[in-house]
Amino acid sequence: MDRLQELDTQLFLFFNGLNHQFVDPFMAAFSGRWIWVPLYVALAAVVVWRYGWKRGFVIIAMIGIAVGAADYISASIIRPVIQRMRPANLDNPLSDLVHVVSGYRGGRYGFPSCHAANTVALAIATSLTLRTRGWTVAVVAWALMQCYSRVYLGVHYPGDLMAGAVVGTVTSLTAYFAVRKFRPEVFVPLDRNATIRPVYITGGITIIYIAIESILTHI
Asked: What does the pLDDT read at residue 122?
C-alpha cells in the first residue's frame, strides 16, 4: 500500500507539474460544474427527441440516478471513511509542491473524486443509451479531460480519479441494467434517425467559449 501511495504521489506531481499560466484559466473553467449545463440540456433534449417524452423521461431519470448515486457514494459514504487528504490541502505536507490555480484547493478530503465518478457515470450511461460511436468517443474524451483537469488543479491524486471512475462505472451500469431488465422497451427509439448534432454543437461552443475567455484573461 505504501508503494502504491508513493507511485500515486509521483504520478500526481508529474502531471500537476505540466502546467502553464496560459492554461490555468482554461482548466479551471473546464473543471467547472455550471459551465456544462447547456450541454446537459441539449443532451436531455436529444434523448426526448429520439425516445419520446415517456421513454425519454425514464432514461433521463436513469442517468440522473446514476450520477446522483455516484456523487453520494463518493462524497458521503467513502470519503468520511477513507479520509484521504487532498494534495493541495494546506495540512498536507505535499501542498508546498502543488501547483494550484487562483487559490483553489477544494475541500479537505478527495478520495474518491466526485468529478470522476459523476463524469464517468454520465459518459457510460449516455453511451449505452445513444449507442453511437461518435458520441462515445466524444464523451469519453470529455470525461478524461475532466479527470485530468482535477490533477492539473492540484485537488486530486490519480488514484482518487481511478476510484471515482470505478464508482461511476458501477452506478451507471447498475442503473442501466436495472431499467433494461424491468423496462426493456424504453431503449427502443421512436426515431432511429434522430440526430445528436445539437449536443456536439453545444459542447463545441462551450469549449470555444472557455478557450476565448481564457485567452482574454491574459490580454
From this structure: 98
**Contact at 8 Å (CB) between 82 and 111?**
yes
Q: How far apart are the first and last CA of the chain?
A: 46
Is the C-alpha dihedral spanning 35, 207, 140, 195 positive or negative? positive
Cβ proximity of 156 and 109 under 8 Å: no
List CB contacts of 94: < 8 A, sequence separation 6 or more. 9, 13, 87
Per-residue cell: 109: 478530503
Hunting for cell 448534432 — which residue is that? 197
Q: 183 with 138: CB under 8 angstroms? A: no
Residue 98, class by beta-carbon neighbours within 10 Å (0-12 exposed, 13-18 middle, 19+ buried)? buried
What 8-state DSSP symbol labels residue 96?
A: G
The model carries a pTM of 0.93
Contact criterion met (CB below 8 Å) for 179 and 58: yes
CA angle 69, 71, 77 (to 5 degrees): 85
Percent of the chain past pLDDT 70, that is, above it, reads 99
Cis peptide, bond prior to residue 158, ω within 30 of zero: no
Q: Is 101 helix (H, G, I), strand (E, B) or coil?
A: strand
Q: Which of 105, 100, 141 is nearest to 17 (CA)?
A: 100
